[in-house]
Write a structure and sequence with these properties.
The chain is built from two helices and five strands. By secondary structure, the protein is α+β, with helices and mostly antiparallel strands.
């Protein structure tokens, strides 16, 4: 049974900013990026333990064809996405984000 997914407000801001950036590079690319992030979060929702174990008690799944990871924490009632993290950014920059954000 899948769990609902909730994005931390900063993770949602990251998703939006990256989608806007990709769209500015090529028409339709922003929507493709958002769709791949959605597909990755769907995997986390349906199979929470499937994501690769990561730092600070989190797991992550990877959008296809984009250099990002979706970092999440499994909560009893939901999956909380803490970051839509570009691979080139300092690992763990999101670690102070609380699951209630």
């Amino acid at each position: 049974m899948s769990k609902p997914v909730r994005f931390h407000r900063e993770a949602l801001q990251e998703l939006t900013a990256e989608a806007v950036y990709y769209e500015s590079q090529s028409s339709g690319l922003g929507a493709r990026f958002a769709g791949e992030v959605e597909a990755a979060t769907r995997i986390a929702s349906e199979f929470p333990e499937m994501g690769a174990p990561y730092k600070h008690g989190t797991r992550r799944v990877f959008p296809r064809k984009f250099p990002f990871s979706v970092v999440y924490r499994i909560q009893p009632e939901e999956i909380v996405v803490l970051a839509v993290a570009p691979d080139a950014r300092k690992p763990g920059y999101w670690r102070d984000r609380k699951t209630n954000g």
